[in-house]
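Our consortium's second objective concerns turning raw sequence data into structural hypotheses that experimental partners can test. To show how far this objective has progressed, the report includes one record in full. It was chosen at random from the queue rather than selected for favorable results. The single chain below, 133 residues long, was entered without modification.
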Amino acid sequence: MGLVAAGVFAGGAGVAVAASWHGMQLKSAGASFSGWYLFNKRGVNHGAFEWKGTLKDQDRTDGHNAYIETKIEGHDWTRTYGKQGKAVNLHRSHWDGAQAYTRDAYMRVCRDRGSLHPDNCSSTMHRKNPAAD
C-alpha cells in the first residue's frame, strides 16, 4: 500500500510542475512588466498559456504608451496595451482550440513610439511547457 501511495504522489509531482506559477521580469527603455506565467494542463482553461502582472509605462513624460506582446505556436503576436503614464494590472490567457494544451509561448514588453520610430522592445522570452516533452 505504501508503494502505491508513493507512486501516486510522485506521478502527481510532474503535473504540479506544469501547472505552477513562475515569476518573470521584462524590461525595455520606457516599459516594464513584472509578473507570473503558467502553462495550464490539459483540460484546465483550454490548456492555455496564462500570465498576469503589472505593465508599467516607465517614462510618464515621453508621450508614449507601453504594451506587451504574446505569441503561442501557430499564431501571430497578440498586443495588450497599458495606459500611458501609468502602471496597470493585467491577466490574460492564450490558447489554440485545436490543441489539448499550449506547447510554446513567447513574450516581450515594448514602448510604442508611433509610426515614425521603431518601438523599443525587450528581449523575447521563450518558454516551453514542461508537459510537452
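The partners drew two points from this record. The chain has a mean pLDDT of 87. The chain has one helix and nine strands. Both points have been shared with the crystallography group to help prioritize constructs.
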